[in-house]
Automatic annotation (TrEMBL):
Residues 51-75 are annotated as: Disordered. InterPro entries: Cro/C1-type_HTH (IPR001387), Lambda_DNA-bd_dom_sf (IPR010982). Residues 1-56 form the HTH cro/C1-type domain. It comes from Methylobacterium brachiatum. This is Helix-turn-helix transcriptional regulator. It comes from the Bacteria.
C-alpha cells in the first residue's frame, strides 16, 4: 500500500520519510521486508499520505486483480515485453549550476504489480528533495522510452532511445531549472542512462578535474555525436 501511494503521488521515498518524520533507513528496511512497520511508524505514514494503511479486519472481499498490461496511455505493454528495461542505471546530465560539471545519480526502473506498469525513481541525488519518480511509457509506434513525472500537473519528461547492445539509453531531459529566488525556467539537456555494472561509480556533481569526469563526459557526448538526439538553436 505504501509503494502504491508513492507511485500514485509521484513522490520519492526520501520525501515521504521527511513528511512522516521518520528516517529514510527505517522506511527502506520496512519496504524491503527486513523489519515490520511499527504502529507509530504506520500512524505517521498515514498522516503524511492522508490515507489509512491498516486493513479493516471485517473486510473479506478479495482485492481486484490488476490488469495484465500497462494502461493505453503508457503503451499497453506487458511485463514480459519490457523486462529488459528493468534495472539500476547510472544517470548523467550536465550540471545546471556549475559550468563543465556533470550531475550523476541513480535511476531505478522496476515493475509495479499493483499499478501494472514500469515505474522509476531516482536515488543518490545530492539534492535528494528534488529526486523524481513516476511511470515509464514504452509505446510501440515511436520505439522510444519515456520517463514521465506528473506532480499535480507539473510535468518532467525524459525521452530515451531504446537500449543499445550494452544496455545504454541516450536521449533528452526536459525539466525546470531553478533560477534566482522562486524563478523557474524551462530547460533541456542531454541525458545518458548507463547500466550499473562498474564498481567505481561516483555520484553527485563531478567537476572537470575529478576522476571519472572524462568517462562520464564521453557518455554524454554520444547523445549528439551518435545522433541519439538533436538540439536546435536557430529555427529561422
Amino acid at each position: 500500500m505504501v509503494r502504491e501511494a508513492l507511485a500514485r503521488r509521484r513522490i520519492s521515498r526520501q520525501t515521504l520519510a521527511v513528511q512522516a518524520q521518520i528516517s529514510l533507513s527505517t522506511l527502506e528496511k520496512a519496504l524491503a521486508g527486513r523489519r515490520p512497520f511499527t504502529l507509530a511508524t504506520t500512524i505517521r505514514l498515514e498522516e503524511a499520505l492522508g490515507q489509512s494503511l491498516r486493513r479493516d479486519p471485517g473486510r473479506t472481499a478479495p482485492a481486484p486483480e490488476p490488469p495484465p498490461h500497462a494502461p493505453d496511455e503508457l503503451g499497453s505493454y506487458s511485463r514480459e515485453g519490457v523486462a529488459w528495461i528493468e534495472g539500476c542505471y547510472l544517470t548523467l546530465r550536465p550540471s545546471f549550476g556549475t559550468v563543465g560539471a556533470i550531475f550523476a545519480y541513480r535511476t531505478e526502473i522496476a515493475w509495479d504489480a499493483g499499478l501494472s506498469r514500469l515505474v522509476f525513481r531516482e536515488a543518490e541525488r545530492m539534492d535528494a528533495p528534488f529526486a523524481q519518480s513516476g511511470s515509464v511509457a514504452v509505446p510501440s509506434q515511436s520505439g522510444m522510452i519515456y520517463l514521465v513525472t506528473n506532480w499535480h500537473g507539473q510535468h518532467r519528461l525524459a525521452v530515451l532511445c531504446r537500449p543499445n547492445i550494452q544496455g545504454e539509453m541516450y536521449g533528452i531531459l526536459t525539466t525546470l531549472h531553478a533560477g534566482r529566488g522562486t524563478q523557474l525556467t524551462p530547460a533541456a539537456a542531454p541525458l545518458a542512462l548507463i547500466p550499473e555494472r562498474a564498481a567505481d561509480l561516483a555520484y553527485g556533481r563531478i567537476a572537470p578535474q575529478e576522476p571519472g569526469h572524462a568517462r562520464y563526459r564521453a557518455y554524454l557526448d554520444r547523445v549528439r555525436e551518435d545522433g541519439y538526439a538533436a538540439f536546435f538553436t536557430d529555427v529561422s
